[in-house]
Design goal:
It contains 13 helices and 21 strands. By secondary structure, the chain is an alpha/beta fold. It folds into 3 domains: 60 residues, 2-Layer Sandwich (Alpha-Beta Plaits), CATH 3.30.70; 215 residues, Rossmann fold; 131 residues, Rossmann fold (3-Layer(aba) Sandwich). The strands form 6 sheets. It has a 7-stranded parallel beta sheet, sandwiched between helices. A 5-stranded parallel beta sheet has the order 18-17-19-20-21. A 3-stranded antiparallel beta sheet has the order 12-13-14. α6 crosses α7. The protein is elongated. The site of flavin-adenine dinucleotide has 28 residues, from α10, α11, β20 and α13.
């Protein structure tokens, strides 16, 4: 327990009991006592008028033996029995990190839910050496309390060195809770992870302006280097977690490449029997309603047609929608279009929107600000349509069309129609 009461100082005022959001403080006569519900949130520390509550040094000492922590874990987030793509991407990344750590380090998927064991096969085929399967009837629907408890308990027992989460709504909710319970660090929205100093230096020198002059490429430091954009994307920061374990990070969908699937590969299953009862979960899920926003699946889209401020007004998205329908894509947008109220935020691509990696990304009337590029520049092919030949988007575009999007897009649609007609004619002829 990281929080303790100094009995000699406690005056029994109960202010801490009232302030605690987790009902983690009881009274033993006139002395406050911290119970097992404590999350180390430290709210009580500031409420105590006589400084009778402190953070216990013993808590730090308990997790100070870093060598006890081994292997890389990936939260294999599943929804209604389908593993999220980002989890599969992270399994591949976890494997790379495990190789860099060496010492027979393995990558494990962590499956949480009700009847999720069968999903372990998919995790193995995408690169996991093993899977921790945490099943319980109360874990059928995601709840912050339920998942946090079983995940934290499992980490306490098995002690992974690294734990990775997809930066999905669930991952962003769960990872900080787990990190806080474990009194360890978490780096959100990483765009790059490294273990070996030499591979970090390689990356930093090629892609960013990070200063690596005082780093020794031969160093045997195996700490996780977690790189993410900072200050609105204007610089990259690399964060380490040297004193506590596990090292924890979230990574947005689409940032890491998924490994090629290897059908038939199997792995080790570790069955975890979680200790969980209804009293551990403070909310009850009555119904799960899929909102219209979820239908916009930018992360899975193979073609994205995005519109920006260059559309001029909201009606421009009718043309973008028509374009997307024609080419079999989904509609994306820049933040400027969202901020103007022309389209819902769920369509936004970029640093504060969704990170995407489609086969083709059409950027229409988008200038190419660094925050937009952060979310789409790893697309396989980028086509930019912009009337300003000097727009920065052309620097990352594979194909650039300088012109008014209201003239260019209808022409593309027209050409697409002609190509479709020609294709059908060819099919008809070959069938005759
Ligand atoms: C912390 C932070 C986070 C951010 N996160 C994001 C993010 O996630 N995503 C994001 O997109 N932005 C983000 N931004 C905003 C970003 O900095 C830019 O302001 C935004 O991307 C600009 O959007 P835009 O390219 O649509 O608009 P503009 O920069 O105004 O560009 C419009 C472009 O349209 C062209 N154009 C105009 N008319 C036509 C026409 N008829 N035909 C063809 N081209 C035309 C113009 O030449 C111009 O290049 C963020 C900013 C900050 C500070």
């Amino acid at each position: 327990m990281a929080i303790t009461v100094i009995r000699d100082k406690c005056i029994g005022c109960k202010l801490c009991v009232k302030a605690c959001p987790f009902e983690a403080i009881d009274m033993d006569g006139k002395i406050a006592v911290i119970n097992e519900k404590c999350t180390s949130c430290k709210v009580c520390l500031s409420k105590c008028p006589v400084e009778a509550i402190e953070q216990d040094e013993k808590g730090e000492a308990e997790i100070a033996d870093l060598s006890a922590y081994r292997h890389v874990w990936v939260f294999a987030e599943q929804r209604r029995g389908k593993i999220m793509n980002v989890a599969l991407e992270l399994i591949g990344e976890g494997r790379r990190l495990a190789r860099e750590i060496g010492d027979d380090t393995k990558v494990y998927a962590v499956l949480i839910g009700d009847k999720v064991r069968d999903l372990s096969g998919e995790c193995f085929e995408y690169g996991a050496d093993g899977a921790y399967v945490i099943e319980h009837g109360l874990l059928g629907n995601y709840t912050t309390d339920g998942y946090t408890k079983v995940f934290t308990d499992t980490i306490d027992v098995y002690k992974p060195e690294i734990v990775l989460f997809g930066a999905t709504h669930i991952g962003r909710d769960l990872a900080p809770r787990v990190a806080a319970r474990l009194n360890t660090g978490l780096t959100a929205d990483c765009t790059r992870l490294d273990v070996k100093v030499s591979s970090y230096i390689d990356y930093a020198q090629k892609n960013t302006t990070l200063d690596t002059s005082d780093l020794d490429p031969a160093s045997d430091d195996k700490g996780l280097k977690q790189t993410r954009p900072a200050f609105g994307g204007n610089l990259m920061a690399t964060i380490v977690c040297p004193r506590t374990r596990p090292q924890m990070a979230t990574v947005r969908p689409g940032v890491m490449a998924r490994r090629e699937r290897e059908p038939g590969v199997t792995g080790e299953i570790v069955t975890v029997n979680p200790v969980l009862d209804a009293g551990d979960i403070r909310i009850e899920v009555l119904d799960v309603v899929k909102s219209a926003k979820e239908i916009v699946s930018l992360t899975d889209a193979e073609i994205i047609c995005s519109g920006g401020r260059g559309l001029g007004d909201a009606s421009g998205f009718e043309l973008i929608g028509k374009f997307a329908d024609k080419v079999g894509g989904v509609v994306g947008s820049s933040r400027a279009a969202v901020d103007s109220g022309w389209i819902d935020q769920s369509h936004q691509v970029g640093q504060t929107g969704t990170t995407v990696k489609p086969k083709i990304y059409f950027a229409c009337g988008i200038s190419g600000a660094i925050q937009h590029l952060a979310g789409m520049q790893t697309s396989d092919i980028i086509v930019a349509i912009n009337k300003d030949a000097d727009a920065p988007i052309f620097e990352v575009a594979d194909y650039g069309i300088v012109g008014d999007l209201y003239k260019v897009i209808p022409q593309i649609i027209e050409e697409w129609d002609k190509a479709e007609d020609l294709y059908e004619e060819t099919l008809d002829r070959s069938a005759e």
